[in-house]
Amino acid sequence: MGANGTANIRIFGDDFTISGLFLTFVGLNETVMKKAYVFPGQGAQFPGMAKELYGQDARAREMFDRADQILGFDITRIMFEGTDEDLKATKVTQPAIFLHSTILAACTDDFRPDMVAGHSLGEFSALAAAGAMSFDDALRLVAIRASEMQKCCEAVPGTMAAIIGLPDAAVEEACAAVDGLVIAANYNCDGQVVISGEKDAVAEACARLKEAGAKRALPLAVSGAFHSPLMEPARLELGKAIEVTPIVEPVCPVYQNVTAMPETDPEKIKANLLAQLTSPVRWTQSVKAMIADGADTFVELGPGAVLQGLVKRISGAAGAEVTIEGKQ
User: Strand pairing of 262-263 and 295-301?
Assistant: First the structure.
């Protein structure tokens, strides 16, 4: 018997020799492969979202009806019958995407995640789906988040821009050289970073990045400088609600935006959630960490397919072969 007590039958291809009672598989990868569920953020909404789910599952109908009561308005009707313009209102967009994702997870009978992550708003969906907070509590937080972000956008003008075709470090260096507030805010995939900050500072950073060789520096049609220090007033108000919200150990690690590391400790989860609004979304780093920790299948739950595309690019750049699926 081997030193670890498990190494006395050795198997080589189709041949094997027996020298004891236990098995060792020679040359096989010892890493247990895992399924990662990922949850989309703002921008994934579309008219009619989750309507089919509502019609097919009584559990979904019950959760949507409860959501209408918690929010104090008929978000279900807006999701199913509203226009693109109706769904763009921040107080609708964020809860709508959260509801689509978390109710879909609750109605997926084989939802047994080994790990989860969500992009920006999607982190709240991931935490609720993994049992770190209740559906009701998470929805209330999302509603507060949406309201406070909208107030912040109106009081503190800002903008964002997507930078394509440069390494992360080059984007960070250009932002640091600008006389004004602009930072790398979303690390979406290799070669795609979104910057965020004051309007003039973002414009200057875009000019510098084009000179540095960016393929594109595309201003985004957003109402504020999300995931930047300009969101500090919203962070403070949301933080008050997060502090009094019960958070428990999730059923699996949650790879959080702020650290791109797996977390299960409720206090660390809460601290990272408190920091999220003014910190970058480290999506590239999160997906790479999940792959390094054994994820070989990624399933996007919720509206759209944006995260499926990002995971494909990130895994391809990392030379990893993964299965990518979506369910909405």
Answer: unpaired
